[in-house]
Design brief:
This protein is α+β, with helices and mostly antiparallel strands. It has three helices and seven strands. A seven-stranded antiparallel β-sheet has the order 2-1-7-6-5-4-3, with helices on both faces. A hairpin with a 2-residue loop joins strand 5 and strand 6. The longest helix has 10 residues. The termini are close together.
Length: 99
């Protein structure tokens, strides 16, 4: 299972999230903007729930980040941004399949 999952609209509004995930609308908006210009991710990383993640890779639909032994997998759809924060023993490929 993902440690902290969330679903947000492309307007930044959070539709659903786990109770202990303090993801903000501002963080979602910043993540969505980064899909247009990934250069900011290279220098600043990703911030979710106040935690910074090192940017690993991404394209027009998927963004991946790493922090310690866990990470984050983001999937942008036509209507939503799916967010999945994971930690060991879950691996990045497993998190991608869940997200």
């Amino acid at each position: 299972n993902l440690k902290k999952p969330a679903i947000a609209g492309l307007d930044g509004n959070i539709w659903a999230k786990s109770a202990d995930f303090n993801l903000t609308s501002e963080e979602v908006k910043a993540l969505l903007a980064s899909y247009e210009d990934t250069s900011k991710l290279h220098s600043n990383g990703l911030v979710l729930d106040g935690q910074k993640y090192f940017y690993l890779s991404g394209d027009d639909r998927v963004v991946r980040g790493k922090q310690g032994k866990g990470g984050v997998h983001l999937m942008k759809t036509k209507q939503t941004l799916l967010v999945g924060v994971y930690d060991e023993p879950l691996t990045a490929p497993e998190a991608a399949n869940i997200t």
